[in-house]
Specification:
alpha/beta, Trypsin Inhibitor V, Chain A, 4-stranded mixed β-sheet, 3-stranded mixed β-sheet, 5 helices, 14 strands
Length: 259
């Protein structure tokens, strides 16, 4: 009997065949468990739910994510009027997402309200300075006028916000504008027909002051228009002389004020 025939007979015995089948089956089950089931189980155990860090400060968000074995990464910064500077505007992955430990969470951080760099307007005319500020989204809050031996008339000689400083868009800036050299003669200007605001500037620039302002109804004139002045134009007077004015008003305004 050949060797091959002997082996075939042995394998054909039930006492040998069944244990062999069981052994092979166990090996197959082991590989299925090790390659398929265990990785699924392991991945499930590592899944972490991403917390919501929006509206938190960047440092606060970092602390929270560190506690969850997640890493924070600042993707960008941008201006946003709805979020305080330094707070998280958005994140990726989004809150509630399932991720592995060590996953990077990308955030966008607010720079707060938009700002601009304050320009230098000293040395520019009041008109040009005002235009430049308005172009940047700033406001001229208050303008004061003074005599100056160093700056010509209608030129800005001081600004309330130093040039180069960051200032929020929409904020106001105070300007100081020169009247020019202090006059050596004090001559009454012609202010009839001017607005009260313009008249005040011209009178002060002449070294005089505004006295009593009386309002009178003048239906054909715009309100706040100078109708009369107490001293004739081109009259030479003393420094600081008060010039009384009569100003037009709307029908409902009947008050009389002194400035």
């Amino acid at each position: 009997m050949s060797t091959v025939s002997v082996i075939r007979r042995i394998l054909g015995w039930p006492i040998v065949r069944y244990p062999l089948i069981i052994f092979v089956g166990m090996i197959i089950l082991y590989f299925i468990f090790d390659i398929v089931i265990m990785p699924i189980y392991t991945r499930h155990g590592q899944a972490i739910e991403v917390p919501n860090v929006t509206e938190m400060t960047f440092e606060g968000a970092r602390t929270l994510l560190d506690q969850q074995d997640l890493k924070i990464v600042e993707k960008a910064k941008k201006f946003d009027i709805n979020f305080r500077s330094g707070t998280v505007i958005s994140q990726h992955p989004e809150p509630g997402s399932q991720v592995k430990k060590g996953r990077r969470i990308y955030v966008i951080v607010s720079k707060g309200e938009p700002t601009v760099e304050m320009p230098r307007v000293v040395g520019k005319s009041e008109k040009n300075a005002t235009f430049e500020l308005l172009q940047l989204g700033l406001k001229v809050r208050h303008v004061t006028y003074e005599f100056s031996s160093h700056f010509p008339a209608d030129v800005v000689f001081d600004q309330s916000v130093p040039d180069g400083d960051e200032i929020k868009v929409g904020d106001g800036v105070d300007l100081s504008v020169s009247y020019g050299q202090f006059p050596d003669r004090f001559v009454v200007p012609e202010v009839v027909g001017r607005s009260l605001k313009d008249a005040q500037k011209v009178i002060e620039q002449a070294g005089l002051t505004i006295g009593m302002v009386t309002y009178r109804m003048e239906p054909e004139l715009l309100p706040e228009t100078v109708v009369e002045q107490s001293i004739l134009a081109n009259s030479e007077v003393n420094q600081g002389e008060a010039l009384h004015l009569v100003v037009s008003k709307l029908p409902e305004n009947t008050e009389e004020t002194e400035q």
